[in-house]
């Protein structure tokens, strides 16, 4: 799994601050922009963002967007990821992009959780799946189907373990929610790893926005009740 921050709203902290101050100021958004960004008037955006969070005034955070390149997650993880509906996704197509079936690419085509690796030979399973996939693609083409038609039909044989690549855009408020539910110990490990990697990446660049993000037990009481993992997050 690899994650790269491709782009983000310019001056996201200031944009959030301008959006929020527009609600309470007699100044226009343009005047606030000129004051806070163009003239670079001193303001402690970090303290202001903390105040917004404590007030529960989170709509201003929706104006800051972050775009990520995500490589090598399973289709199972993708299915969980796309449940976050306030995001934008573009995903590598299995209709137009055939799987690599060489031995060198074997380990990159599938992701298996540790639980499965303990009970089955995942290497042999991957080899079998790739051989079957390639056989069907070849057979369909011999029967007169185009390469694209062969690939799009052969993909029905592929499991949710098949890896994929995507570009994803989320705003800061949705990211906060994403971290609350996906950094939690009750989330499946692959998407939990993904969430923590994104969070750590953002905290390095935009600490004032994301410094207190993570599972709900990080800043308060676990909401899971009897389904709680019983292991609240310990901040280092």
What does it look like?
With 236 residues, this protein is an alpha+beta fold. 45% of the residues lie in helices and 13% in strands. It is built from 10 helices and 4 strands, in the order E-H-H-H-E-H-E-H-H-H-E-H-H-H. The protein has helices at 12-24, 29-38, 45-55, 75-81, 114-117, 122-142, 147-154, 172-182, 189-205, 207-210; strands at 2-8, 65-74, 88-91, 163-171. The protein has a 4-stranded antiparallel sheet. Helix 1 (12-24) runs antiparallel to helix 2 (29-38), helix 1 packs across helix 3 (45-55) and helix 6 runs antiparallel to helix 7 (147-154).
In short:
The chain is α+β, with helices and mostly antiparallel strands and 236 residues long.
Keywords:
single chain; 236 residues; elongated
Task: List the SSEs and their pairings.
Layout: E1 2-8, H1 12-24, H2 29-38, H3 45-55, E2 65-74, H4 75-81, E3 88-91, H5 114-117, H6 122-142, H7 147-154, E4 163-171, H8 172-182, H9 189-205, H10 207-210
Antiparallel strand pairs: 1-2, 2-4, 3-4
**What is the tally of helical segments?**
10
Q: Mind summarizing the main beta sheet?
A: 4 strands, antiparallel
* Low-confidence regions: none
The secondary-structure element order is EHHHEHEHHHEHHH
The secondary-structure class comes to alpha+beta
Mean pLDDT: 91
Ends: how far apart?
24 Å
């Amino acid at each position: 799994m690899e994650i790269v921050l491709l782009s983000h709203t310019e001056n996201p902290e200031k944009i959030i601050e301008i959006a929020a101050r527009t609600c309470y100021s007699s100044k226009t958004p343009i005047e606030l922009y000129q004051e806070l960004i163009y003239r670079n008037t001193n303001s402690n955006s970090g303290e202001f963002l903390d105040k917004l969070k404590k007030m529960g005034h989170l709509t201003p955070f929706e104006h800051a967007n972050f775009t990520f390149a995500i490589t090598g997650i399973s289709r199972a993880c993708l299915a969980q990821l796309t449940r976050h509906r306030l995001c934008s996704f573009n995903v590598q197509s299995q209709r137009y992009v055939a799987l690599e079936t060489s031995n060198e690419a074997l380990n990159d085509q599938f992701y298996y959780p540790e639980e499965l690796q303990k009970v089955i030979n995942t290497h042999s399973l991957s080899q079998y799946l790739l051989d079957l996939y390639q056989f069907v693609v070849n057979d369909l083409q011999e029967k007169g189907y185009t390469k694209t038609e062969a690939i799009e039909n052969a993909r029905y044989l592929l499991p949710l373990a098949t890896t994929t690549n995507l570009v994803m855009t989320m705003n800061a408020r949705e990211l906060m929610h994403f971290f609350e539910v996906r950094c939690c110990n009750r989330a499946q490990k692959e998407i939990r790893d993904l969430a923590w990697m994104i969070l750590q990446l953002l905290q390095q660049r935009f600490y004032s926005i994301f410094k207190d993000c993570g599972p709900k037990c990080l800043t308060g009481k676990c909401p899971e009740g009897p389904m709680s993992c019983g292991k609240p997050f310990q901040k280092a």
